[in-house]
């Protein structure tokens, strides 16, 4: 089966173009946008880990190593598309337009962190694994019924493929031929469980066969491959040709979350040969004349400021409001809940 | 029903309907009126639903609006969430309440919580319909009444009509509600009687019970199929000189505490009847409500006449599981002669 | 994909041997056993429908048209294997050794109908669709852990493939390489929903690809093909080579249950070309010299008596016992349940 | 703990353990003693579980007995059913109670009903362990306390230890029980204190609560993390001259009604504390039990101090969701000064 789903790549580990058919489609604007966003989200990610260590953030799920997969896919979207992320996909959602400060808030136990910017269809991160796949199919179905050209993307991990909701989501999407892209980041582990214990299939891409939908396996650390294959899947979806399953093979460099210790379960050597996705695109930029020292310095400086400002915004955000415990359960608060709220606020007054 | 306006009946705008017809009529009406309405479920299209609740609807409104789905409850509820968030108003039919459990995670974690998790940015205005309850000699597992699994789930409302008028009115109210509503349809009453039901649009307010029989000695609280059990028991009790007031609760979350408090404070005694298991059953909530609101009025411990703490038995024994008028009468006598 | 999973058959609609490689394995004993059991269960099935019409049985799920699939697979089992049927697989369980009388009892709302003969590992029929697949994997796992050569078979329909439990069951079985055969009877419909609306894949067999397990598509109305392919899958399982997914393409001649009216959703012509599986094996027997008029008369007479006796046994069975409402919830009855029971029995006394 | 025999302590056969260590120890012991024991779960092998409950067990007992499964709760519970029916004694770890819902159908329809459906021919002696509850600043959805979903499910027992001694004793009792048992492990107490726990085998009887503080004016009923909230409240109340008796319920199904009745009949007042939502919460069952057993003794309506009817909030607000000693004290004062 593996041979049916060869891993597609456009640039190799040394940053050489290995699939010349894409040469004409690659331009400076695209390469710089990919690079810029990967730098942005890595800066964000590293800052978040630091903040967590300093006790300024709650448990945090880092995505270092997966930047190419997240940025490449997010840049392939149109602004009216729907995004269904997991807890590890804030690299993608920030690229798509989610505020960094709000994302910090999420990791600081603030429900405000789930609220997307007006007009951006970004769902709250799926915490129960794989539950977002049917949602993505449903939102896409609505677009199809309205006759738009918008589509959905559902992000999910290798572990998520074991849940029933993965199966039911893909089956619905294929039966109703809705415009959705199922974007799998196969980072080799679900917390401590390696993919060989998660499934007996050689690839995730081949699971598409069960749904009669196209499946494609790509090098998820090659941002160009991710970008173009995602774009292709979206074109397919927008044209009414239904869903696609993309397996982007990648690697989580760090821990599952800041509460996790990967040295307990992951052999140290295991990821050593993997070339960092940002290094990859850097090598490519240098090899093909896209590298511009000054520009790189500029965007790094800009990004550092952006992240610092987001930290400030998060830390100066109005404190959590006890009303929010009660106010968003129903559009109109039932009497008994109103009474609970009133009694509790009165209790607080008395303290 | 008491709500049926005389004018409705006089100018011919009512029709004799069974409960299942009233439900069908409510959906037809909303499919006509609101093009965001879409119905999803197993066998609801050509087949018109295993109970014929959607009979004729696909023919009239097309396969895009009345959709036969794959056999997958999590898929039905999960995609309905996406549809609801993205502008539609799905009605998801679950074939029997006993088969809703594969979708339990989607309901528990997403349907009910999405408003809260997004601070009302994303909302899930959807209706889940599920036939429920025992007493129709259905095959095993088809007879669960597990309403508590949904009343203990902040963010979703639960209604349970016992008659054609309420069924249509509550269903339309559910469809217009900005939040998710689970409609439990007591199978036993689907065809048990016909009533005059307005052919036009009307709603029955969610969150309001109804006094279906006035009385002075004891309050019976019931819903769904248990309302007629309560009525039969009340008749028998009357012969023994006991006057029963009956509350048809109609909405199981949020509960109409006022109607309960007022009635119990008047009668000073209460018997609660439900077919769900005793332990963890909604009857316990009602006991608490009476404890909270009417402690000093109570002249006897509250009685609960309920299904036992056993799985609903196979149909040859289900009569031994379900509350009967005779068991309710004993409960009534117990509280009256305490 | 369809071409990867051609429908295997050994005998064709006219009863001709079309796959000569099986010729040597076919003998009189086998052919007669297949035929005899198909007659038995058809007689049973038709009787059940009659009883239901006369009000002597509850709602009943007939399997006419699926006899080859059920008998062929059940005869391939060893006596210590585990069987996980649905509500439509009593043709298989009766063939495997379940009592006909108990099976009638099941359809008459009697829990006694779930109890298998001592020593026969037959699970109560799965009513919630697809839930039995993980059970079958678990029971098989236990056999593997104990190092036996026993295996499980899980029966399920085309509709069942849409449930999450189908996916999770197959995934577990393949990851742990347990000895289980997933035996799908694709009868084209899940109640009223045709397979084209159930899935977008051309076959069910191809869903095996998702689990890296063998998948095979067979003519489920060819009892020889069913028998030999199931046997092969069991050998594979017993040898420690893991699970197999079998798609047996068949047809339900009658209604989903006696409460269902297939003319509402199924074009009359749709099944007309399908040759009845019993006719098929009859033609084969006649073509190849296995037919024996006297023997056929004898087994038909014997079978009629067997079924009538089962009806009698069912109808003379001790009446339902109210104690059974309470007595099998826990090994030891909790006080509060004992009190409920006692109070209820006292109540009955008073009536 | 009161059950700790002095002899245990004297001859050195006890050890200081946290609750999580006691749980680990209980499993280790049963893996040693009973080769039918098999543990299934996500990340329980090399990683030793996300809370380290299974630390070291795979190393010691091998990958066949301590099994990392795919990420699939229905798969874990579903295959455990097959294993249990076929001679094994599975312990299934669900990573957090908030993630048990995908397996809800398997538990509801099969784990709990198989004995009944087969007239005890097939039984499911398995244990499901699930960390639960709020208060540890976990990410959202990790803090549910939905015990009622399982106490309203005939055929399964539910226990909820609050301390190391009970945790090990109840876990071993669960593992030896011929029927399925859900063990709810209150995360907040996993490492909150160390206690002397026997290193050998012992059981705490399922179905029995414990008086953890004696008092005369009011009975507090709690379990899991709420026991220490009750204890703090009792101390504060004592300063106000109110003497509280505290029941640690320990088993949530079947409930120890005698201990409740005896205590409430003595104190004549009750305050129930739980972190689950008020509506549909187990507190209502307790109110019913008191109504049924002790109506004439009660001098004030029963108070319930519980989580609100809202999804458990994100962790910056969870302190406003959970019962606090201050809220409990107000409840106590309310019943005492009624
Ligand atoms: C239903 C459910 N079960 C268990 C968990 C606990 N959990 C959180 S992340 C995770 C692993 C997910 O792995 P994968 O899908 O590969 O995504 P990754 O974390 O590698 O991005 C688990 C088991 C959960 N969140 N939801
Ligand atoms: C979880 C669940 N959902 C719905 C049903 C109702 N139902 C009973 S049989 C059936 C169709 C099953 O179709 P298939 O799997 O093809 O088996 P067949 O009946 O054709 O043998 C449905 C929807 C059920 N029993 N369980
Ligand atoms: Mg992963
Ligand atoms: Mg079928």
Question: Could you explain how this protein is built, in words?
Answer:
With 351 residues, chain A is an alpha/beta fold. Chain A folds into two domains: 2-319, 3-Layer(aba) Sandwich (Rossmann fold); 321-351, no CATH class. Chain A contains eleven helices and eight strands. Chain A has helices at residues 28-53, 67-74, 90-96, 100-107, 132-146, 164-175, 195-198, 223-238, 277-287, 293-315, 335-350; strands at 82-84, 121-122, 152-157, 180-186, 189-190, 193-194, 215-219, 244-249. In chain A, the strands form two sheets. Chain A has a six-stranded parallel sheet, sandwiched between helices. In chain A, strands 5-6 form a two-stranded antiparallel sheet. In chain A, strand 7, helix 8 (223-238) and strand 8 form a beta-alpha-beta unit. In chain A, helix 1 packs across helix 10 (293-315) and helix 4 (100-107) crosses helix 10 (293-315). Chain A is globular, with a radius of gyration of 21 Å. Chain A starts with 27 loop residues before the first helix and ends with a helix. Chain B has 338 residues and is α/β, with parallel strands linked by helices. Chain B folds into two domains: 2-198, Rossmann fold, CATH 3.40.50.970; 210-336, Rossmann fold. Chain B has a seven-stranded mixed sheet with strand order 3-2-4-5-7-6-12, with helices on both faces. In chain B, strands 9-11-10-13-14 form a five-stranded mixed sheet, sandwiched between helices. The longest helix of chain B is centred in the first third of the chain and has 15 residues, at 19-33. The two termini of chain B are 34 Å apart. The mean pLDDT of chain B is 96. Chains in contact: A-B, A-C, A-D, B-C, B-D, C-D. At the B-D interface, helix 5, helix 7 and helix 11 of B face helix 5, helix 7 and helix 11 of D.
